[in-house]
Fold UDP-N-acetylmuramyl-tripeptide synthetase.
Amino acid sequence: MKLCELLPAAGGVLLQGDPRAEVRALCCDSRAVTPGALFVCLPGQHADGHDFAAAAVRAGAVGIVCERPVPGLPPGVPAAQVPHARIALAQLACRLYGDPARRMTMIGVTGTKGKTTVAWLLAAMLAAAGRKAGVLGTNGAQWPGHRVPLPRTTPESCDLQALLRRMADDGCDACVMEVSSLGLQQHRVDGILFDIGIFTNLSPDHIGPGEHADFAEYLACKSELFRRCRVGVVNADDPHAAAVLARRTCRVVRYGVQDPAAWRALPGWQPRRAPGFLGVDFTAVGPAGQALRCRVGMPGRYSVYNALAALAAAGVLDLPHAAMQTGLQTCVVRGRTEVVPLDAPFTVVLDYAHNAAAAQSVLRALRACRPARLVALFGCGGGRSRVRRFGMGEACARLADACIVTEDNSRGEPLDAIWADIRAGMQRGGPGTPCVLIADRRKALYYALDHARTGDIIAVLGKGHETTLQRGAEALPFDEREIIQTYMRKKQA
């Protein structure tokens, strides 16, 4: 598409160069520029894309979109100025890639916890109903025959629209995607009208440098999804639901356990533990009073809520009940209360829980499975809010029988500083809880496996789906499933 055909979508004004330049892609990272790409200069907290415009041109960018003139550009290089680069990036991406979201049923999931699980549960239901669905979020982008890793939950708009175009061109008729608060704040999903927006729950998170200024801003960003969707599927039991919906423009379908809701779970949930399986059985009741007996392969109260969210959205989409039940029972979500297959008399569970609320939910769910001992292995990331560290320490010391504290993604922050905050939290939660400090996460995993007893559940928290470990600026290969399974095979041999 020619630059002159693209610019009107973003209200751009050409400052220099040939408006007939052919644009083949969009990019906002100078390191990822390919020949023929249009580079959009995004101002950021730590770096400004305007400073990398010349590098983008040297890498083959066909032109530059900026908020202010960029000095030093070769005279023949097209440059266009826009009022707001992030908004322009989304507008240009929708235009260049042909608004692919309009060709699919779009479902967006937002909330503090549960986004990934709900997205994958609903995608499994769609697949069971015979539809070809893509899923996009923390665990990457995936659709039949394709898997693409993603650096963030909600990609930048140029990358998002390119992925949606690939899904649509490959025959997908639906896409379920996680919509983060930062994704909404930074206009990454601008131009998408969601058929369904799902709200899971809200608790303080992502508040601090480079994220949200305070909880009010965090809530306001989450609520934006319900001015961008036709139907809102909302957790009626969450205390922040009313505030999230305060300025909605959509129809609302509620789900829950305590308050009246269109979809609800009856009392009498049954936790299930078997070799290689942890889950819960429950009965869901839909809007017409129909009862569905459900089994989901993840334990705990939060898994019932996540299942209800997916069921309510599936109900809006008129999916068959059998497809709903099949999707729930067969779905395995990587890094979300994921049982590692082992030939062992104990159970190892991987979960992405990296704040107090998530750790509490996971550990309470695992406690309900009546382990001989519940052991929590965890650390906390560097360069993030210290509140998470206090909270993780407090929750794990209070709810686990023993703790193994180790590294997480340190991102260059000294481990001693991170551990001091964790220990302060542990003093509040359970000063008498046995604790071992092992700096190397691999060795910490080995220690946990060496000291596991029959009937134990070892909860490995914090990394979940991740396959790298960040030490300083280095990202080391680190797949906890592979590490655990390889070590156990060696022990058994």
In short: Residues 17 and 78 are 4 Å apart (CA to CA). The longest strand covers residues 277-285. The chain has 15 helices and 25 strands. The mean pLDDT is 94.
